[in-house]
Amino acid sequence: MLALVGTVVGGFESFGIFIDQSSKLSLRMRVGEQHDGWVLREVRAREVMLENPSEKAIMSMPQPGKGSEGEIQLSPLNSTTAEQELGPRQSQ
Question: What is the 3-state secondary structure (H, E, C) of 13-74?
Fold first, then answer.
């Protein structure tokens, strides 16, 4: 499984920075790229949305000073839309 450690949100390109917890290697994924069957669909400040054929996952970075583990929310693809789960977009 991946752990989210950073996000870069840009006008032309956005990506998430992860640590693969099994190999302990860092990984940078652009929107649309995949790793172990999960496709990075959206990147926002401090959170990303990944999707596989049956589920989507919202991963959040840990809050500063709150430990080293972020939050992961899994849901079936046919539940709510990503916009509802991630909430309104914040202006950059």
Answer: CCEEEEEECCCCEEEEEECCCEECCEEEEEEECCEEEEECCCEEEEEECCCCCCCCCCEEEE
